[in-house]
Amino acid sequence: MPGKTGFDLLEELDRSPRIIFTTAYDEYAIKAFEYNALDYLLKPIDPARLSEAIKKIVIEKKEDEEIEVNLKGKTLKAGNYVRLFFRDQKPLILKTLNYLDERLDPRTFFRANRKHIINLKYIENIEPWLNGGLLVKMKDGKKVEVSRRQSIKFKEMLSL
Fold first, then answer.
1. Whether the predicted pLDDT of 30 surpasses 80
2. Which of 33, 99, 151, 156 is deepest in the core (most CB within 10 A)?
3. Could you give the 3-state DSSP secondary structure of residue 147?
4. Tell me: the pLDDT tens digits for 97-137?
5. CB atoms inside a 10 Å sphere around CB 89
6. Range of the domain at 31
């Protein structure tokens, strides 16, 4: 990539994709895993290692897209789903987090990490967390980690 590194490209993305780094340089491995790399392969790439790395994508994809839900003694297989939290209600809906993130008002909701969208009106406390991230305590006592990448956007948005 002329004029850019893979890390530069990842910084420009809103969401971290499933990624396997392939490079001739081992010194970037730690940084790669800070971007949630599934694997880090050194060139020349061993076909068996590549096969194992690809299996990680298949396993993660299956876990993301198919779950079993036990409802009143019946086991249902569900595709992409999201659990919503409303005071004492916790409905399960068959939509992806990305689907909701694209449709929710960004003035009220914020994508904290790959697994959570938070309602900004229900934040009780914000404190520094690991690796430059933030820990948000919600009014119901739940704690949500804001990823390092999202923390930058979060601080800018809240003028912290």
1. yes
2. 151
3. coil
4. 888 888 889 888 999 998 899 999 999 999 998 878 899 99
5. 7
6. 6-63
Which pTM was predicted? 0.50
4 Ramachandran zone, left/alpha/beta (phi>0; psi -120 to 50): beta
| Burial (Cβ within 10 Å: 0-12, 13-18, ≥19) of residue 128 | exposed
Peptide bond into 44 cis (omega under 30): yes
Q: What is the 3-state secondary structure (H, E, C) of 130-148?
A: HHHCEEEEECCCCEEEECH
Domain assignment present for residue 91? The answer is no
Residue 156 domain-assigned?
yes
8 A C-beta contact, residue 79 and residue 66 = yes
Rounded CA gap, 159 and 44, in Å?
46
pLDDT score at 126: 94
Please answer whether residues 107 and 151 qualify as being in contact, where contact means their C-beta atoms are separated by less than 8 angstroms: no
Tell me the pLDDT tens digit for each residue of 7-19. Answer: 888 887 776 677 8
Please state the domain count of the chain. Answer: 2
